[in-house]
Amino acid sequence: MDASKTLEITGSKRPVLAAVLQILPFIGGAGYFYLGQHRKGVLLALLSAVLLAGNAVAASQGLLEDGVVRGWVFLAMVLTPIWFSLLLVGGLDAWLLGRELKAGGSVGVRESRVPLAGRLFGQSDGDAQSGGDAQSGSDTQNG
After folding, report:
1. Distances from the Cα of 122 to the Cαs of 95, 104, 115, 142, in angstroms?
2. Residue 143 belongs to a domain
3. 18-53 pLDDT per residue, tens
4. Which DSSP symbol is given to 14?
5. Minimal CA–CA distance to 19: which of 105, 115, 117, 109?
6. Contacts of 107 (CB under 8 A, 6+ apart)
7. Do the domain assignments include residue 99?
8. Domain for residue 135, yes or no?
9. Which structural domain, as residue segments, surrounds residue 113?
10. Which 8-state DSSP code applies to residue 28?
11. Which helix (H) or strand (E) holds 138?
């Protein structure tokens, strides 16, 4: 059995703090770190760093080149709303996980309460409860 599936996080956490840390764009993933879900925090932090760097390059090179929108600018225009959406979904997920921990419950290190966050960053609540371990077991062996 994979160790990541047997580890559980317990202890009282502040749900609002977890959500606020999660949605801050310059420290993306900090809410997951606060909750002890380090793998999800690292994934979101790396994604945030790449998108911030892309936006910085787009801003430094100007908007147009010979009347055509530059590729970096177009990429930033497309990816930035997606990134902010991920931060908001992660914030909701962190808040729900923090609320459960504050109530005295426990959560797995890859567990999520928002299905989209589970698919993107780890295991969703439905997978954890429905015995989806067989399906997600191949994911943990590959990653």
Report:
1. 16, 22, 10, 13
2. no
3. 999 998 877 878 999 999 888 888 888 888 888 778
4. -
5. 117
6. 8, 9, 35, 37, 97, 100, 101
7. yes
8. no
9. 12-127
10. T
11. helix 133-142
Spatial CA neighbour of 8 closest among 104, 109, 94, 95:
109
Q: How many domains does the chain have?
A: 1
Tokens of 62: 């100007």
pLDDT digits (tens, 9 = 90+) for 55-107: 777 777 666 666 666 676 777 777 788 888 888 888 999 999 999 988 888 88
Q: Tokens for 34?
A: 């606060």
Residues in a beta bridge with 111:
123
CA distance 38 to 74: 32
CB-based contact 34:45 (threshold 8 Å) = no
| 48 is a domain residue | yes
| Its pTM surpasses 0.90 | no
Token pair recorded at residue 123: 């295991």
